[in-house]
Specification:
Elements (H helix, E strand, L loop, with lengths): L1 H48 L3 E5 L5 H12 L3 E4 L19 H7 L19 E7 L7 H9 L6 E7 L8 H6 L7 E7 L6 H11 L1
Parallel strand pairs: 1-2, 1-3, 3-4, 4-5
Helix pairs in contact: 2-6
The chain binds flavin mononucleotide.
Length: 208
């Protein structure tokens, strides 16, 4: 009889325990469902606003600007121009003069020409096309100034450039050094300033 009573009270405790555990778990499950719904809503919002992709570029003489504008249309992206605080003059761009501003800057990998301060943020973008003219086989250091001012963690960066014939060379490698280790840097290609929207759409597709 005593054993039966003991067994009964043990069974009651076990059932109570299960109830209590279930009651505790229920709000947790509801909370995580709410979290999930919030996340989904955020994703939907981003998709609706259609501003997940950015084209950011530097251009000294207009070639990269031209193709960046076409690329932004092709990629349905926002566009942002990196503007040096002190614009480059023709004399600054004289690559035959070893003392010109561009020659001096490009000889010093650590040079970071100042850019105009503004409130622009890359936070809302997942994919960022980064474009520039090839200078001495790589990106002008003013591009590094911009990259180091922003947080590119977990973003995909697609590098493109215009040039007088040189390939992208070390551009992507040099850009990687200026962004978070978690950024996925893709070495894209040299683009013609006169590339059409259709041509650029094809290129974008080929990256997927
Ligand atoms: C300082 C300087 C260095 C350059 N170095 C190279 C180079 O190494 N290889 C190359 O093919 N073109 C070079 N170019 C040519 C530019 O990459 C090319 O003209 C580019 O399309 C200019 O783009 P932008 O009009 O957007 O500034 C150089 C131009 C300048 C001004």
């Amino acid at each position: 009889m005593k054993t039966a009573k003991l067994f009964l009270s043990l069974a009651v405790f076990a059932v109570l325990g299960i109830f209590l555990a279930a009651a505790q778990a229920a709000p947790k499950a509801a909370k995580s469902k709410a979290k999930q719904t919030k996340g989904e809503a955020k994703m939907e919002q981003t998709e609706k606003s259609g501003i997940k992709t950015l084209v950011v570029y530097f251009s000294a003489t207009g070639n990269t600007k031209k193709v960046s504008e076409t690329l932004a249309k092709a990629a349905d992206a926002d566009i942002y121009e990196i503007k040096p605080l002190k614009p480059y003059t023709d004399a600054d761009l004289d690559w035959t003069d070893r003392n010109s501003r561009s020659s001096v800057e490009m000889k010093d990998k650590k040079s970071r020409p100042e850019i105009a301060a503004d409130k622009f943020s890359v936070r809302q973008y997942d994919t960022v096309y980064v474009g520039f003219p090839i200078w001495w086989g790589t990106a002008p250091t003013v591009v590094n100034t911009f990259l180091e001012k922003h947080d590119f963690s977990d973003k995909t960066i697609i590098v493109f450039a215009t040039s007088g014939g040189s390939p992208l060379g070390n551009s992507a490698k040099d850009i990687k050094k200026s962004v978070s280790e978690t950024a996925n840097v893709i070495s894209g290609r040299i683009l013609s300033p006169s590339a059409t929207e259709a041509e650029l759409k094809k290129w974008i597709e080929s990256l997927r």
